[in-house]
């Protein structure tokens, strides 16, 4: 074999290796897109409440979610709560706003740490954009744990109705208004 033929074969071999690498990259991209499509197809309809939507859960679902959230909070305290200034106090579950904050942070943590084949900046973004700001809020806001250093202190001064008794009258007045109903607006659909 001549030197020119050997050089030509080496060039062909290099092109083949490069093509194999590109095909492998394309295969990974196709796999990634297929997984994304599968995930989208498996997603519940938008009208279906998420399984962490406290407002929509029954008693059994609430217990299961609270147990799972408690496991995560325990792990967070073991991982990050090296001093009292960084711990989530034990009465956290008695503060509804804190429960909502922790649930949101937990779900965001799952999205950042699960379901990724390749490295992403999601974990760093979770720390900077979710975790540390959430920790500051639940530790300093009056609705949070700011007054619970030694024992639980209920941040709600007293129960007050969210809507005053005149709301029913307001609805009656609103319903008494007449005028054309735009097409398709005969029923409220959210």
Provide the helix percentage: 55-70%
Q: What's the total helix number?
A: 5
Number of strands: 0
Hey, roughly how much beta strand do the residues contain?
under 5%
Q: Please tell me the overall pLDDT.
A: 83
If you compute it from the alpha carbons, what radius of gyration comes out, rounded to the nearest whole angstrom?
28 Å
Low-confidence segments: none
Distance between the termini: 76 Å
Shape: elongated
Give the SSE order as H and E letters. Answer: HHHHH
Which sheet architecture does the biggest sheet show?
none
Descriptive notes:
The protein has 190 residues and is mainly alpha-helical. The protein is 57% helix and 0% strand. The chain contains five helices and no strands. The protein has helices at residues 3-42, 59-80, 96-113, 122-140, 167-176. The mean pLDDT is 83.
Helix and strand topology:
Elements: H1 3-42, H2 59-80, H3 96-113, H4 122-140, H5 167-176
In short:
The protein has helices spanning 3-42, 59-80, 96-113, 122-140, 167-176. By secondary structure, the chain is an all-alpha fold.
Describe the structure using short key phrases.
190 residues, mainly alpha
């Amino acid at each position: 074999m001549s030197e020119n033929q050997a050089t030509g074969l080496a060039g062909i071999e290099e092109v083949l290796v490069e093509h194999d690498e590109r095909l492998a990259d394309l295969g990974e991209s196709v796999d990634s897109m297929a997984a994304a499509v599968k995930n989208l197809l498996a997603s519940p309809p938008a009208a279906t409440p998420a399984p962490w939507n406290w407002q929509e859960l029954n008693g059994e679902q609430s217990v299961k979610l609270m147990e799972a959230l408690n496991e995560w909070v325990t792990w967070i305290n073991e991982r990050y709560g090296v001093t009292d200034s960084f711990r989530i106090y034990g009465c956290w579950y008695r503060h509804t706003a804190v429960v909502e904050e922790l649930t949101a942070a937990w779900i965001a943590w799952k999205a950042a740490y699960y379901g990724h084949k390749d490295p992403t900046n999601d974990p760093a973004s979770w720390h900077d954009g979710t975790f540390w700001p959430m920790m500051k809020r639940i530790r300093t806001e009056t609705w949070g744990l700011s007054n619970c250093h030694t024992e639980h202190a209920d941040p709600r001064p007293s129960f007050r109705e969210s809507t005053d008794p005149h709301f029913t009258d307001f609805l009656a007045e609103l319903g008494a208004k007449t005028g054309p109903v735009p097409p398709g607006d005969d029923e409220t659909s959210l």
